[in-house]
From TrEMBL:
The lineage of its organism: Eukaryota, Viridiplantae, Streptophyta, Embryophyta, Tracheophyta. Pfam families: Mur_ligase_M. GO terms for cellular component: cytoplasm. This is Mur ligase central domain-containing protein. It comes from the Eukaryota. InterPro entries: Folylpolyglutamate_synth, Folylpolyglutamate_synth_CS, Mur-like_cat_sf, Mur_ligase_cen. GO terms for molecular function: ATP binding; dihydrofolate synthase activity; tetrahydrofolylpolyglutamate synthase activity. Keywords: ATP-binding, Ligase, Nucleotide-binding. Transmembrane segments: none annotated.
Length: 400
């Protein structure tokens, strides 16, 4: 296991981008043409979920994400999965937590694995247009028909579980159970699972060492402070809860020294090898954006990853044209690359350097460093404008 990792990444960007305010977009009547309502075929499914406690809407109780007496009870989630015959035991899992970068890193990794020819599921949150976005198989959001089939097949078990748990099972817990059941039905090789809140007491944290390929912690920042204990220290402790005994953990970062110490200490207590994707001494630069034949903007990057004990690079990729722009997306791409190498080390041999390149270059997410195409900008009555959509929701992200 190559736990002593050095990354050198160069990114070429250009500052010549016209900024369009969020207010001007949300007030534009043509924006509605880009927004769809939930599929009518999912009316019963959505209605069922809406009958449950939804902490995404209501707010998360104080301390609920901490590994303490105030934290969510993982026992009810484990009992639900047992009633469903533990579908998540049927495939390997990469578990991703972090304040920011989870969705992008998960998308990069999923596409790398797909480029290697593996059947890949991805579970993420929240969604933008449809709840179907949260569950994808092989790069495609689940269809309404498939989601309905899975829901109807396990609804009696869900009803029984809700009754036996005295109505305490939440919207996210039930949705997670449905997603894990869906992935088993689709017979995927591996699932990339994004934690919803924190890590230690998140509903997704029922994955055992035996089917965990790797844990990933992207960043640690001040989000959901009250729910996660009130400080960066307690947030780091909560997110480190996804580290499992003997399984490798990839740390994105960069982290403050005392935060990295917390994560490394947890990993040491679990005998988990640590792979550090960020390198404080790495040479990262932002230089220019390229426009490939008018089909969209790209940032041209060079990614070099090597073992600190060996000067020879493990991966050396030049002119990687990322559709996800910004230095933070370069870091997410580097983190996903490190996870890919970790999987390759475990025997996922089809994760070649070329698969890594293809996966990184083909990744695009709605509302994450998303530059609209000329046609999309024109639909917003902004012809000729370069429009960037990004759901930045923390102070650090808004300053990028």
């Amino acid at each position: 296991m190559w736990s002593h990792l050095s990354t050198i990444s160069y990114c070429k960007l250009s500052p010549r981008i016209r900024r369009i305010s969020a207010a001007s977009l949300t007030s534009n009547r043509n924006l509605s043409t880009m927004v769809s309502t939930e599929d009518p075929e999912l009316r019963d499914f959505v209605g069922f979920l809406e009958s449950l406690k939804n902490y995404e809407k209501a707010g998360v109780p104080k301390g609920a994400g901490t590994d303490s007496g105030e934290g969510f009870d993982l026992g009810r989630m484990k009992r639900l999965m047992l009633r469903l015959d533990n579908p998540h035991f049927n495939y390997k899992v990469v578990h991703v937590a972090g304040t920011k970068g989870k969705g992008s890193t998960s998308a990069f990794l999923s596409n790398i694995l797909r480029a290697g020819g593996y059947s890949v599921a991805c579970y993420s949150s929240p969604h933008i247009l449809s709840i179907k976005e949260r569950m994808s198989c092989n790069g495609v959001p689940v269809s309404a028909a498939t989601l309905n089939d899975v829901f109807k097949s396990i609804k009696p078990i869900l009803d029984q579980s809700i009754q036996e748990e005295n109505g305490s099972l939440s919207h996210f817990e039930i949705l997670t159970g449905i997603a894990f059941s869906l992935f088993a039905k689709e017979n995927v090789d591996i699932a990339v699972i994004e934690a919803g809140l924190g890590g230690a007491r998140d509903a997704t944290n029922i994955i055992e060492s035996s089917n965990l390929a790797a844990s990933v912690i992207t960043t640690i920042g001040e989000e959901h402070l009250a729910a996660l204990g009130g400080s960066l220290k307690t947030i780091a402790e909560a997110k480190s809860g996804i580290i499992k005994h003997g399984r490798p953990v990839v740390l994105g970062g960069p982290f403050l020294p005392h935060i990295e110490d917390i994560l490394r200490s947890k990993a040491a207590s679990m005998s988990s090898p640590v792979i550090l994707a960020s390198d404080i001494g790495s040479n990262s630069s932002v230089k220019r954006i390229i426009d490939r034949n008018g089909v969209g903007l790209r940032q041209s990057c060079e990614i070099v990853i090597q073992n600190e004990k060996d000067d020879k690079p493990i991966v050396e990729l030049g002119d990687v044209n990322l559709r996800m722009l910004g230095h933070h997306q370069l870091q997410n791409a580097v983190t996903a690359t490190c996870v890919s190498l970790c999987l390759r080390d475990q025997g996922w041999g089809r994760v070649t350097d070329e698969a890594i390149r293809i996966g990184l270059e083909n990744t695009r997410l709605l509302g994450r460093s998303q530059f609209l195409t000329p046609k999309e900008a024109e639909a917003l009555q902004l012809p000729g404008a370069t429009v960037l959509l990004d759901g930045a929701h923390t102070k650090d992200l808004r300053e990028l």
